[in-house]
Write a structure and sequence with these properties.
By secondary structure, the protein is of the alpha/beta class. It has 15 helices and five strands. The chain has three domains: 161 residues, Rossmann fold (3-Layer(aba) Sandwich), CATH 3.40.50.300; 38 residues; 144 residues, no CATH class. It has a five-stranded parallel beta sheet, with helices on both faces. Helix 4 links the parallel strand 2 and strand 3.
Length: 383
């Protein structure tokens, strides 16, 4: 694998040479190269948040992004006083949070050259939040830079999109992802190549699959499902198992954080101590409970989205075999089962199954009950 990595803070931005050149020119102060608001877009796993963090670090670095100085290290770690990183674990970013960011954006930098606000999930900003953000973009402070990240430009309302400079990222190649895993995480070459191929260019997903045997096991269980969907009972059982597994994954990811948050709130309200206790703690605990439920819902939705992604890759391979495409199989280790599935159906039927997966993803995004959405999907995938 002969993939050349960029240097300094740009080292993890693989396959993004064009975008890195644009951002480097802005850091260097090229004519008309810098602006106060940027919109960084790209498919999931392409490195949007990494690009924004690297750009933020380079803007604070005296050398333009060396990756070694204190400014670079603290900016990348999220501890620089003039770099604010916003990454929500909720379903949306509300108006109150955006107003706090707008207030912060009006402040002068304390140590660095700019006050940089990085919003990693700009597509989750609510309509009222977008209205609050718009004022800051229309009347920017002289030393403030907004870095907004979203999957596509259309995921951000047009009034905000028109006031930002667009930077587009692409899906990195499997070779580039594998090279990054070997260089950054010391993953053996064979596992790195395997994880990069099955992750389909998603850097974060490839890293998890390369480092976590349980993640690879769960993925195999998902890919074992399609040939088993032959009866209505099997479809309903598969849907229930997938939703239950996603719920368990969400609980495992949030239980410790939830407990720490409840303990911190109890201490802040005076419980367990000798200080004066607040008269109405119920509202505070109710707000915390609502936030934790929203976070758990997002984690469950993310887990189900990974299921849909794996199923999409499987049926993409089936379709590739049916139309005699020369494209490499994502799931090459399942070539025998994929060929059998392809022979048993038609390309039109496979396209129908891919459409069903897309419709299921849309249903989940519009708050359809996960079990109902997955049951409908499994029935439509039935062989």
């Amino acid at each position: 694998m002969s993939v050349v990595a960029a240097s300094g803070v740009w080292g993890d931005l693989i396959g993004q040479e064009k975008a890195v050149a644009v951002l480097r020119a802005a850091v260097a102060g090229g004519r008309h190269a810098m602006t106060h608001a940027w919109l960084i877009v790209g498919p999931p796993g392409s490195g949007r948040s990494n690009a924004a963090r690297a750009f933020a670090a380079a803007l604070q670095c005296p050398s333009g992004g060396c990756g070694e100085c204190q400014s670079c290290r603290t900016a990348l770690a999220g501890s620089h006083p003039d770099v604010t990183l916003v990454r929500t674990e909720q379903l949306s970013i509300g108006v109150d949070e955006v107003r706090e960011l707008a207030r912060r954006s009006a402040m002068s930098p304390a140590l660095g050259r700019y006050q940089v606000i990085v919003v990693e999930d700009a597509d989750r900003i609510t309509e009222r939040g977008a209205d609050a953000l718009l004022k800051s973009l229309e009347e920017p402070a002289p030393k403030t830079v907004w870095l907004l990240c979203a999957p596509t430009p259309d995921d951000v309302i047009v009034t905000i999109r028109s006031r930002t400079r667009l930077v587009e990222l692409s899906t990195p190649s499997p070779d580039a992802v594998a090279a990054l895993l070997m260089r950054r995480d010391q993953v053996p070459e064979a596992i790195a190549a395997y994880a990069a191929r099955i992750a389909q260019g998603h850097i974060g997903r490839a890293r998890v699959l390369a480092r976590d045997e349980n993640a690879r096991r769960r993925r195999k269980e998902i890919l074992d499902l399609p040939p088993k969907l032959v009866t209505l009972g099997a479809c309903l059982t598969a849907a229930a198992n997938l939703v239950e597994a996603a719920s368990e994954e969400a609980t495992a990811a949030t239980v410790d954080v939830d407990a720490r948050e409840r303990a911190a709130l109890s201490e802040a309200l005076g419980f367990g101590g000798k200080g004066v206790k607040t008269r109405s703690p119920g509202a505070a605990f109710k707000d915390l409970e609502d936030q934790q439920k929203a976070r758990a819902k997002r984690f469950q939705r993310d887990a189900l989205d990974r299921v849909l992604t794996e199923l999409t890759g499987y049926y993409r391979d089936v379709l590739s075999v049916q139309i005699h495409s020369n494209a490499a199989l994502i799931n090459a280790e399942l070539a025998g089962g994929i060929a059998k599935m392809a022979a048993a159906g038609s390309p039109e039927a496979t396209l129908g199954r891919l459409d069903a997966i897309l419709e299921c993803r849309t249903a989940l995004e519009t708050n359809v009950a996960p079990l109902l959405a997955l049951e409908a999907l499994m029935i439509r995938l039935r062989s």
